[in-house]
Design the sequence.
């Protein structure tokens, strides 16, 4: 009888355990279905984020931050700021630098101040100051003693446009390479709305840098993202170019860490690999690693990683690390707010969207006569003719208005003729039409062409044999708009080239392919020749030229210094 009761209780206990397991499985299944539905709703609307050179789609409600960008050792920070606040801040910084003693205790701390004005609308200043000289001797014996001498300066650039300020700073910089900052700023484009650029380059928050940028400039940036509906979930991207790749990939490194050492067994008991294999996204191949971890406080969390080791000499294959994790608490891990299947579904949705900001075809350049309507994005900077108005109706701001590329084409505010009574009362009526205002591109230039006020250095023709050989080599490789070339080198392609030297009088000039690029022309300071009345009015020195537009022959008429021919 006793044996019967034990068997009976054993069957009851077994049934209870089975029921509990079944209920647990059912709850888990229901949660998985619920979470998958939530992820589907979360990813129904996505937004594209440009991180350096990487484009990635994230849930529309994700809170995204782009942090710590650097290029050519310059730390870059972009933020919202009014024109007045920017002007006051830069003036205060200039006064502070000038008031600081130099390394000898004198008043020459500020070495140079350069005004900045770019074709993308940026204005500001560049300061070079704070020279530090380090010298002495080193060696283990009198026979090996050597003298050393090092110098570095602080370089700071402050620029502003469209309500956005960008600071580019370096505390210790080689004095021979301070012009790197001027070139870098010339490639900077304000982008307040963080729209996806239509040209290749490097994105930061509220701005981007046009190519060409090279791997040895070592561009890098970090992105962090969070979802308000899942505070325990974090997403991060690190992008670094120009680094020497490590010898072992993510999977090999993780295998080595988990297979040796006193913690290996404990880690194995708490960690399960869900995926560990190479994956290719957007043409980039890297190691993918997905793990489930049971934490010491009995919470379950998930970790996702995808790493591309990169190529040291290829800016389009940077060292990339994409991470996503769940279960992040303020002080300790918390239970993942997403089930395993739902977390993997979100990861797969995000990673499948990865691609590079590298258009196959160059952006189309709008021709004279191109049309756009109010509300459209302006396709090309220049003077646009308003299609509304006329017959006594004026347009606020003028019938022809200068509109920058990327701005919204405006709806014209029309000003009808005033009546006598309105003139007496000084009242000007106005109205807008119900249909979008049409605009036509009338002139790509920012002002009228006039002849330069002083003679400029001219390009010279190289030896015929050398020119032919160079031209043949140049024809094999396309020269992208934005390419740089220096004085004395053969012009890579016929077109309009802008002088990159601050204060130069050259502006934008046409050069033929193969001709030797000329020196830049500057106004001669009166102090250089002791104030002599017969002293030359200009001086010339080596400079850098940037390709603005292709053209096999120059357009007729002189070109004003500083403006592109249309």
Sequence:
């Amino acid at each position: 009888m006793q044996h019967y009761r034990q068997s009976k209780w054993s069957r009851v206990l077994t049934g209870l355990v089975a029921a509990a397991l079944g209920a647990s499985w059912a709850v888990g299944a229901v949660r998985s279905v619920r979470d998958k539905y939530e992820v589907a709703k979360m990813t129904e609307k996505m937004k594209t984020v440009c991180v350096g050179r990487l484009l990635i789609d994230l849930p529309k409600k994700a809170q995204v931050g782009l942090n710590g960008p650097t290029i050519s050792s310059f730390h870059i920070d972009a933020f919202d700021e009014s024109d007045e606040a920017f002007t006051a801040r830069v003036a205060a910084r200039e006064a502070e630098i000038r008031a600081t003693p130099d390394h000898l205790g004198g008043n020459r701390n500020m070495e140079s101040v350069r005004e900045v004005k770019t074709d993308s609308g940026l204005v500001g200043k560049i300061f070079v100051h704070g020279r530090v000289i380090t010298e002495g001797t080193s060696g283990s014996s009198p026979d090996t003693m050597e003298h050393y001498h090092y110098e570095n300066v602080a370089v700071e650039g402050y620029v502003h446009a469209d309500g956005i300020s960008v600071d580019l700073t370096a505390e210790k910089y080689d004095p021979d390479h301070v012009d790197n900052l001027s070139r870098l700023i010339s490639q900077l484009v304000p982008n307040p709305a963080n729209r996806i650029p239509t040209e290749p380059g490097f994105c930061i928050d509220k701005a981007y840098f046009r190519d060409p940028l090279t791997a040895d400039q070592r561009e890098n940036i970090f992105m962090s993202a969070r979802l308000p509906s899942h505070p325990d979930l974090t997403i991060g991207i690190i992008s670094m170019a120009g680094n020497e790749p490590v010898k072992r990939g993510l999977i090999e490194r993780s295998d080595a860490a988990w297979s040796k050492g006193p913690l290996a067994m404990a880690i194995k008991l708490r960690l399960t690999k869900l995926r560990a294999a190479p994956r290719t996204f957007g043409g980039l191949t890297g190691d993918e690693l997905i793990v489930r971890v049971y934490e010491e406080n009995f919470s379950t969390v998930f970790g996702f990683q995808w790493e591309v080791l990169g190529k040291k000499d290829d800016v389009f294959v940077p060292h990339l690390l994409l991470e996503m994790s769940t279960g992040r608490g303020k002080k300790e891990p918390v239970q993942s707010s997403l089930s395993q299947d739902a977390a993997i579904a979100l990861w797969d949705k995000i990673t499948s969207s990865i691609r590079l900001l590298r258009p196959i075809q160059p952006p189309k350049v709008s021709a004279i006569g191109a049309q756009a309507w109010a509300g459209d994005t302006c396709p090309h900077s220049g003077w646009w003719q308003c299609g509304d108005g006329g017959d006594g109706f004026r347009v606020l701001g003028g019938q022809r208005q200068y509109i920058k590329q990327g701005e919204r084409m405006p709806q014209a505010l029309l000003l009808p003729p005033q009546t006598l009574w309105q003139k007496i009362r000084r009242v000007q009526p106005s109205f807008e039409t119900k249909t979008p205002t049409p605009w036509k591109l009338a002139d790509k230039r920012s002002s009228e062409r006039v002849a330069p006020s002083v003679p400029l250095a001219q390009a010279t023709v190289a030896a015929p044999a050398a020119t032919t050989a160079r031209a043949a080599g140049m024809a094999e490789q396309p020269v992208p708009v934005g390419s740089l070339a220096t004085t004395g080198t053969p012009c890579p392609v016929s077109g309009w080239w802008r002088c990159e030297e601050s204060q130069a009088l050259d502006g934008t000039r046409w050069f033929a392919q193969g001709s030797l690029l000329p020196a830049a022309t500057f106004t001669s300071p009166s102090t250089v020749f002791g104030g002599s009345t017969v002293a030359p009015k200009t001086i010339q020195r080596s400079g850098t030229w940037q390709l603005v537009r292709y053209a096999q022959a120059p357009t007729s008429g002189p070109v004003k210094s500083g403006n592109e021919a249309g």
Remarks:
- The first helix runs from residue 2 to 42.
- Residues 73-141+148-186 form one domain.
- The chain has four domains: 44-71+192-359, 73-141+148-186, 372-443, 464-550.
